[in-house]
């Protein structure tokens, strides 16, 4: 099911949460709403779900006007950051809940619950309480519950934000594989750039209630629309006054045409890479990243004299001749 968001505006008192937002989400795609806290991404997700109303604008789901439809009539599955599990119910009962309130036949409910628990690899925990599961298992249970009702759209609000880094990485890999199996149109909110770049087919960057850019992870990373998008999607540094990626800064120990001289202030190894901080003769503090092998070959240390260049810098355009 596609989602069409047109001209959405939303205010909370004097605060503008969304400002004339237009977003088109294709059927079967996994789309990330990415941005800083307070930027409007969760508000947009809740409006799509029917949990918030718009001040103006429209929402269509699968070509059907949904702007004034209540949440329970939109056939949307919603997963919150903190699971929202029924603590007194077993895992199986939690997954069955949406089907039971829809008064589905018991045999159908039982079969669907078994299918969902198999899908999220929790069949052996069907009779446990949520408190007896790990954080990652509880979030998988929440996803099974949302998918059990066969929603047209699956909406995830910071689904892995409460988990530690290792479990978060495992779950986002799992979510990508799950999506490729079930092909339900999925929208998830995150402020984690790496999560969006790894998982999403398409990313919508939202800041201060406005859409900054929409595109594939490669498009946004390689051709950002502005400095905000570039700085939000991955590390940046400034060289000769321009934003560049640290891995696009070349460090050499010999001068070359167009290179910028400087002095190494720090060389820090972080796992497989080395981050070198250079103070240029013009007073800029520039960060460059390189492999350990490259750093060893350059024999860099505090006080080393180096030259910096980047192919990503915009070329200087000569002033037109007078006359």
TrEMBL record:
Signal peptide extent: none
Enzyme class, spelled out: translocase
Any Pfam family the entry gives: ABC_tran
GO CC aspect terms: ATP-binding cassette (ABC) transporter complex
Source taxon at top rank: Bacteria
ABC transporter domain: residues covered: 3-233
Alphabetized SUPFAM superfamilies for the sequence: MOP-like, P-loop containing nucleoside triphosphate hydrolases
Protein name in UniProt: ABC-type quaternary amine transporter
């Amino acid at each position: 099911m596609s989602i069409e968001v047109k001209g959405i505006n939303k205010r909370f008192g004097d605060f503008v949460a969304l400002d004339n937002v237009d977003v088109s989400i294709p059927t079967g795609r996994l789309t990330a709403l990415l941005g800083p806290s307070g930027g409007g991404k969760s508000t947009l997700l809740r409006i799509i779900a029917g949990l918030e109303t718009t001040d103006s604008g429209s929402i269509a789901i699968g070509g059907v006007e949904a702007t004034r439809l209540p949440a329970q009539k939109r056939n949307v599955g919603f997963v919150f950051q903190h699971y929202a599990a029924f603590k007194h119910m077993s895992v199986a009962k939690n997954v069955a809940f949406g089907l039971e309130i829809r008064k589905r036949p018991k045999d159908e409910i039982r079969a669907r619950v078994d299918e969902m628990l198999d899908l999220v690899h929790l069949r052996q925990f069907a009779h446990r309480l949520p408190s007896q599961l790990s954080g990652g298992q509880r979030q998988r249970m929440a996803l099974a519950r949302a998918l059990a009702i066969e929603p047209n759209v699956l909406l995830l609000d910071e689904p892995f934000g409460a988990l530690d880094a290792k479990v978060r990485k495992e779950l986002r890999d799992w979510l990508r594989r799950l999506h490729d199996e079930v092909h339900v149109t999925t929208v998830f909110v995150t402020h984690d750039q790496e999560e969006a770049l790894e998982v999403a087919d398409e990313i919508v960057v939202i800041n201060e209630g406005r859409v900054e850019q929409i595109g594939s992870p490669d498009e946004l990373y390689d051709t950002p629309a502005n400095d905000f998008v570039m700085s939000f999607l991955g590390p940046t540094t400034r060289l000769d006054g321009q934003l560049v990626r640290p891995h696009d800064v070349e460090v050499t120990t010999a001068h070359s045409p167009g290179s910028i001289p400087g002095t190494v202030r720090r060389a820090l190894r972080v796992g497989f890479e080395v981050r070198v901080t250079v103070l240029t003769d013009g007073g800029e503090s520039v960060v460059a990243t390189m492999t350990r092998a490259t750093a060893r070959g350059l024999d860099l240390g505090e006080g080393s004299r180096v030259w910096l260049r980047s192919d990503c810098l915009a070329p200087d355009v000569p002033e037109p001749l007078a006359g």
